[in-house]
């Protein structure tokens, strides 16, 4: 049974319900504009044999809101993380710190590589990092080579 695709305004209550679910502050003008763009994309991609249109649309909207929430959370996390390393008089995290945060999160470093990366960046030598982590200097050197490969791959994607 084919579910008819109604006009955008017919889904307003569902949209508002989703926005309230995510505790987004009113007024919803920006979110409604984004919802309309998602609606248009859903109209193009809708396959009636797979689900009802309203379900498809609201799930797409939900995934979009989830992604927005995740990006917002990462931004706050970055500001918090680098505010710990800032000088007290600075108001915004420097661009360099934001680049480091991007490298930290998007280059898929292992937890040990993250530690080695942070310590290398702050100026520790290979031998000092080896003592701090309890690893051999050759292990630290291999990890730094792997970090360089991952970071280079991360930066070349952008």
Stretches where pLDDT is under 50 for at least 5 consecutive residues are 84-94
Distance between the first and last residues' Cα: 44 Å
- Order of helical and strand elements: HHHHHHH
How many individual β-strands?
Answer: 0
How many independent structural domains?
2
Could you tell me the strand content as a percent range? under 5%
Q: Give the helix tally.
A: 7
Q: Can you summarize the main beta sheet?
A: none
Overall, the morphology is elongated
SS content category = mainly alpha
Q: For the residues shown, what is the average pLDDT?
A: 76
Helix content: 55-70%
The radius of gyration computed from the alpha-carbon positions, rounded to a whole number of angstroms, is: 23 Å
Notes on the protein architecture:
This protein is mainly α and 158 residues long. The model is unreliable at 84-94 (pLDDT under 50). The two termini are 44 Å apart. The protein folds into 2 domains: 8-79; 107-157, Orthogonal Bundle (Arc Repressor Mutant, subunit A), CATH 1.10.10. It has helices at 12-21, 29-45, 53-83, 95-106, 111-121, 126-133, 137-157.
């Amino acid at each position: 049974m084919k579910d008819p695709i109604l006009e955008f305004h017919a889904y307003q209550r569902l949209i508002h319900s989703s926005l309230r679910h995510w505790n987004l502050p009113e007024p919803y003008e920006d979110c409604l504009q984004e919802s309309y763009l998602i609606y248009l994309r859903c109209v193009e991609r809708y396959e009636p044999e797979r689900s009802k249109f309203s379900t498809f649309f609201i799930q797409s909207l939900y995934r979009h809101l989830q992604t927005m929430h995740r990006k917002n959370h990462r931004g706050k996390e970055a500001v918090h993380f680098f505010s710990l390393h800032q000088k007290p008089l600075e108001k915004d995290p420097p661009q360099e710190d934001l680049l480091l945060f991007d490298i930290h999160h998007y280059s898929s470093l292992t937890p040990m590589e993250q530690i080695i990366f942070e310590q290398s960046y702050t100026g520790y030598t290979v031998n000092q990092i080896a003592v701090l982590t309890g690893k051999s200097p050759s292990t630290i050197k291999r990890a730094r080579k792997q970090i360089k490969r991952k970071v280079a791959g991360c930066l070349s994607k952008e």
